[in-house]
């Protein structure tokens, strides 16, 4: 029998093999990430593993896919459900502040601590929102909707196996093998010729719409390894002649603890694709749809911590607007140093980040009474705090990834009208609750505190 986490780990590994065969620069990214991680581990020892064991970090990937309709998203949820991955978070990338892409998204990922430790594979999953009349007139919108309604992304056999794996939380070896083959194939780039006129019609309006609705299948559009020092990774990739985008999205490189998520990417490469022209003949063409991204993960922040992060983004934007010649990263570093506590202790004390707590093995001897607040327990060495790693995404960084990679030129998508999509809508569309990431971190934190309290015989620290 193959358990859910084993299925998930095998799926992530096979997807990685497939992607590496198809996008060779990805393999370079993985190799360089591994080298950087080994160097960081050598230099920092156990500290390097504070946000995940080196085993976890080395295997860790996230992928991204894009689908066209709620029905397709519903099927995707069944496939990831088989792998023990649940929808977490609602990302509205239509928001102007996020960069304005005509999609709404969620991330499918494991949610409990043990499952995350076994394999944290996650997939950022976006759904096209074709409701904006500025982009799609009624005729084109209905052509697009008909096109999407007529395609089949996932064969019924795959969905049936997925339902079984989810219900039984495992599959017999033979069925697991079949499931994995079908699942990986469903996310491979199709070699089927693309209807050139249709693709270009959509592309003129939105590159994202063409990527999603211009073809009969979906594909993984990037697979992201995790690295322990993203600034170093960026330098080494550039040295190897791989052209990265010039910025690292997310928090700056600063002297305090790593928070949330920092990401950078290389531009989508032109890949040969067969195109069918209106007269029916097939010609060679090239499309840029798949790219490479790498990320460094930091500590998960509370709602207050997140509000602070969003506020600082705005502050940095304002300063950049006032000093267009200044270096954004440098400004961000200064802003952060002024506003963000520089130690884990202070982040915890100010309720800005999430930690789990355990009894310190070298705590004061039996006989003395433990204090009753978390702060005192920490300060007097009774308990130790371990930061919780951020398992999710950032909408503005995500929108940046969309924009900087999908197409070199072409119009930036700019869609702010349209239907009222939100987490509740998404939950209804996929028939499963879209979980609140803050609630998940909080639960982990609270569980550890309850356990500490029981072990120390306290009522409530
Ligand atoms: C998804 C972009 C978001 C991330 O890491 O923020 C993402 C996409 O391009 O489809 O993967
Ligand atoms: Ni990504």
TrEMBL record:
Domain of life: Bacteria
Keywords tagged on the record: Dioxygenase, Iron, Oxidoreductase
Cross-referenced InterPro entries: HGLS, YdcJ_bac-like
EC number, UniProt record: 1.13.11.93
Gene3D superfamilies the UniProt entry points to: Uncharacterised protein PF07063, DUF1338 (3.10.180.80)
Cofactor(s), by name: Fe(2+)
Keyword Iron: yes
Catalytic EC class: oxidoreductase
Keyword Iron: yes
PANTHER family (alphabetical): 2-OXOADIPATE DIOXYGENASE_DECARBOXYLASE, PTHR39479
Similarity field: Belongs to the 2-oxoadipate dioxygenase/decarboxylase family.
UniProt protein name: 2-oxoadipate dioxygenase/decarboxylase
């Amino acid at each position: 029998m193959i358990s859910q986490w084993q299925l998930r780990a095998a799926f992530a590994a096979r997807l990685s093999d497939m992607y590496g065969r198809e996008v060779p620069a990805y393999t370079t990214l993985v190799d360089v990430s591994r080298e950087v991680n080994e160097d960081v581990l050598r230099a920092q020892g156990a500290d390097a593993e504070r946000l995940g064991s080196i085993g976890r970090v080395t295997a860790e990937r996230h992928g991204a896919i894009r689908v066209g309709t709620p029905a397709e998203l519903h099927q995707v949820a069944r496939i990831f459900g088989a792998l023990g991955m649940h929808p977490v978070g609602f990302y509205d990338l239509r928001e102007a502040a996020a960069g304005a892409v005509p999609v709404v998204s969620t991330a499918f990922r494991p949610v409990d601590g043990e499952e995350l430790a076994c394999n944290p594979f996650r997939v950022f999953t976006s759904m096209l929102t074709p409701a904006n009349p500025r982009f799609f007139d009624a005729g084109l919108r209905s052509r697009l909707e008909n096109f999407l309604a007529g395609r089949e992304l996932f064969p019924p056999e795959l969905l049936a196996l997925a339902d079984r794996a989810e219900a039984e939380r495992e599959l017999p070896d033979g069925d697991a093998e079949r499931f994995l083959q079908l699942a990986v194939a469903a996310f491979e780039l199709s070699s089927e010729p693309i209807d050139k006129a249709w693709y270009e019609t959509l592309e003129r309006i939105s590159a994202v719409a063409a990527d999603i609705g211009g073809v009969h299948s979906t594909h993984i559009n990037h697979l992201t390894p995790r690295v322990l020092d993203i600034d170093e990774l960026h330098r080494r990739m550039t040295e190897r002649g791989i052209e990265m985008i010039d910025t690292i999205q997310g928090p700056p490189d600063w002297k305090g603890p790593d928070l949330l998520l920092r990401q950078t990417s290389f531009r989508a490469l032109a890949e040969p694709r067969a195109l069918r022209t209106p007269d029916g003949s097939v010609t060679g063409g090239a499309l840029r749809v798949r790219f490479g991204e790498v990320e460094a993960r930091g500590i998960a922040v509370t709602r207050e911590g997140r509000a602070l992060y969003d506020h600082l983004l705005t502050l940095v934007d304002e300063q950049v607007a006032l000093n267009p010649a200044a270096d954004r990263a440098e400004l961000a570093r200064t802003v952060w140093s002024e506003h963000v506590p520089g130690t884990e202790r202070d982040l915890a004390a100010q309720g800005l980040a999430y930690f789990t707590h355990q009894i310190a093995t070298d705590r004061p001897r039996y006989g003395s009474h433990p204090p009753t607040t978390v702060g005192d327990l920490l300060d007097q060495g009774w308990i130790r705090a371990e930061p919780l790693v951020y398992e999710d995404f950032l909408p503005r960084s995500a929108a940046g990834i969309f924009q900087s990679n999908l197409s070199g030129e072409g119009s930036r998508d700019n869609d702010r009208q349209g239907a009222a999509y939100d987490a509740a809508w998404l939950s209804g569309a996929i028939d499963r609750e879209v979980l609140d990431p803050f609630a998940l971190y909080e639960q982990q934190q609270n569980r550890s505190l309850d356990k500490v309290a029981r072990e120390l015989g306290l009522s409530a620290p």
